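Lab notebook, bench 4. The sequencing result for the construct came back, and we need a structural model before the next group meeting so we can plan mutations. Quick request posted to the team channel:

Model the 3D structure of this chain.
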Amino acid sequence: MPKQISPFHSKDSKVYHIYGVCSSGKGVKKRVKGTGGRKLCKACKDIKAGKRTH
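Done. Here's the predicted structure in token form:
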């Protein structure tokens, strides 16, 4: 299972990420630290649940 990292999000996004290998999180160019009150992205949820690796 991939290692979790500190939560980050994009100012333009409705979700946050906790895995550096997340397919949608990789596209975030300017990361903002923290969750920003957003919900966890679907890909990160699946990684956390063991349903996918990236």
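The first strand starts at residue 4 and ends at 9.
Will bring this to the meeting.
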